Input
Amino acid sequence: MKKLLSLTLAALMAVSMLSGCSNGSDNSSTAQNSGEEPTGTITLKVAHNMDFVTIPDAVLAAGERLNEKYAAEGKDLKIEFETDYARIDWGEYSNNLIFAQKNGEGPDIFSVSDLSSLVEAGMMLDISDLMTDDFVEGIYTPYIVDGKAYAMPFDLPVRVIYYNKAALKEIGWTDEQIEALPTQMANGEFTWEQFLDLCKEVQDKGAATWGLTHRPGAGSDFLDVFRTLGGEYYNDEGKLVFDSEGLQRFFQEIYDNANTTKITPQNLTQTTWDTINTMVGDGTAFAYYGPLYSATYVAGAVDKTPEQFAEDVGFAVFPVSEYNDTPFCIAAPQGMGINATTQYPEICKDLFRELYSGDSIDQLAHHADTIFTLSSVKAANEMEDIKTNPILEKVGYMADLSVTPPNVDGLTTYNNELYKQIQLLELGQTTPEQAVADMKTQIEINLDADLVEYK
Amino acid sequence: MKQNMRQKNMQAYLFLSPFLVFITVLYILPAILTVIMAFTSLDSAFIWKFNGINNFRKILMDPNTPIIAWNTVKYVGITIFLTVVLDLFFAIMTTYFIRDERKGNIFKSILMIPMITPGVVYSVLWLWLLEATPNGLANKVYMALGGSEPLNWIAQYPFVIIIAATLLTSIAYGTTVFSSAVKSIPENQFRAARVDGAGEWEIVRNIILPNLRFHITFIALWETLGLLTNYVTIMLITNGGPGVQTEVWALSAYHKAFSDSQYGYGAAISLVLIVVVMVLMLVIGAVMHHQEKSRS
Output
C-alpha cells in the first residue's frame, strides 16, 4: 500500500513538474529570459478577476503606448495581448492561476489575491526594483513577502465611514457642522464613542431607521472597527495576532449595537448586499463602514450619479477612541503581478514602469476616478480625473492618514471565524466572552501554531 | 455454446468499457487523490506535504465536530422520514384515490418543478421569500396578517427552512417510484379486499404498504446517500449558519477546503463521509439482494 501511494504521488509530482516547465506565451519572437533581446510580435496573457477591469485595461493601454515608442525608436517589437477576465470567487481565481501555471498556461501578468500562496507556488516574479518614490509611501506593504515586492499596487482604495448628511440636517445640524465632521474625525476632535452616540441620536429622532450598518458577509471591514477599539490583528513582523482583550471589546460592541442600543439591525447578516446598498443610498441607514469604492454600488442601488451621491453622503476616517489615539483609514490596494516564468520579464516590467512613471499614469488616474479610489501613484493623484471627481476631491487628505497592513498569513480563516461570531452576537445567540473563547478554539485548530501570536 | 457465451460477454464488456473509463477517470482517480490528500497539509499553494493523521486529529479535537455530526443525522433523518411519508401520501393519493391518470399526472408534474429548477435559482427564491426585511414576501404576508415587526425567518428557524427547502426537491422522485409500484399491484388484490369488506385505510395499510416495502427501503437509502453528500441548498440559503447551526458534514468539508483553503483537512472530512457512504452502499446492496431473493 505504501509503495502504491509513493508511486501515485511520484507520478503526480512528475506530471505537475513536467507541465510546470513548459510555461510561455505563444509568440513569433525570440524569448527574452534566454538573455536575447526579443523581436517581432509577442503575445502577453493578462488575467483579471471581478468588476474593476480598468486595472487590466490600464496595462493594455500602456502596451499601446509602448508599441508607439518602439515604432518611433525603430525597434522591431510589438506587444499584443490575450485577455482572460473572470468574475469568480477570489479563492477560486487564485486556484485557477496555480492550476494554469502547473499546466504551463499561466498568464504573464495577472491580478493578485492570496499572495502568499502564489509566492509559495513559485508563480510571482520579484519586482522590488519597481518599488520607487513614484508611489504613495507604504502602498507596497501588502505585496511584500520576506522583504521582496511581488505585485504592483494599482490604486489606493481606503475603507471609510459613510454618513448621511440629510439625517444630520434633520436633527438640527447646520451645513457648516455637517461639512466639518470629517475634519473633526480626522483631527481627533470627534471620537468613535461620540460617533456611536450620534448614530443613536439620529435613530432616536427618527432621521434614519438604523444608526450603523456593515457588510453582510465575512471581510476585512470589521477589522477597522476592531482596530478603532485598540484591537491588534497583526504584529510588526506581519504575523497574525489573536488579541483576546481587543476581541472582547470588539465583540461587546457588536453585541451592544445590535441588542442594547439597537443601532444595528439584528438581521443584518441575513440581509442581501442589494438591500444594504439601498439602505445606505436612500438614508434608511445613517452610517455604514466599508471601502470607498463601494460608493459605486451604493449610488447604483438608488440610481444616483456620483455628484448626487456626494451631495447626500459624507465620508470620514475612523476616529480616535478610548483605546486608539490615531485616526486612520485602511488602504487595501488592488495589484497585478508578473509571472516568475514569463518569457518576457523585462517587457512586463516596462509595462508597469510605463504605468507609474510614463505617459500612461493617466490610465491609473482614470481607473481611480472610475471606481472612486485614490491612486497608488503620487502623480496620478494630482491629475484632473481625481481632482475633479466629486467624491475623491473631498477625500484626498485621507491618503496621509492611510495605513496599509502587510500580507498576513491566515487572515482569511481569521476573518471567516470572526464573522461567524459577529453573526451569532448580533442575533443575541452568544455572549462576547463565549465568542472570544469559541473563536480562539477554531483559530488554534485551523491555523498552525507558528502562524499566530496569542495575547 | 461456451464460445458463444464468451463472445456475448466480450461484446457486453466492449459496450461497458467507455463507461468504465469515464468512471475511473472522473470518480475513482479523484477518490484515490482525496484519500491521499487527506493525509497532507495541502493548501492554496498546492504543495503536497504529508502530515500523517494530523487532519483526523483536528476533526476529533474540533468542538464543532459533534454538533456538525448531530446536525447531519438530524437533517438526513428528519428529511428522509418526511420525504418517505409525503412520497407515500402523494403516490397513494394520485394513483390509488384519484383514478383519473391525467389529473394525477398533472399533480405529479407540479411536484417536479422544484426538482427540475436549478439549485441556485431555487435557493435564491427561498432567500427572496424569506428576506429578513419588510421587503421579503413571507414578511409582507406576515405583516399583512397583523405582524408588527418583520421576522428574521432564516435566523430563527434555520433548520426548519433547510429541511423544507430540501424536502420540496426530494418529493417528486419518490412519488414517481411509489406511484409506479402502486400501479403494479394487481387489481384483484383490491377487489378481494373490498369483497371482504375492507375499508380504504385497511387497504392502504394491509395491501399497498406491504407491496411497497422494498421500494420504501430503496428510496430511504437512496435519498440518504443524496442527502449525505449534497449541500448546495444549505450552502446557498444559510451557508451553515447562524454559527454552525445548519452546518452538515459535506458542507463542512467544502468550507474547510474552499473557504479556508485547507484542502488536506477538507479531504479528511470528505474521507470520513466516503466511508459512511460506502457502508450505506453495502447496505443498499444487501437490501437489493434480499429483495431479489424474496421475489424469486
Notes: Chain A has a mean pLDDT of 90.
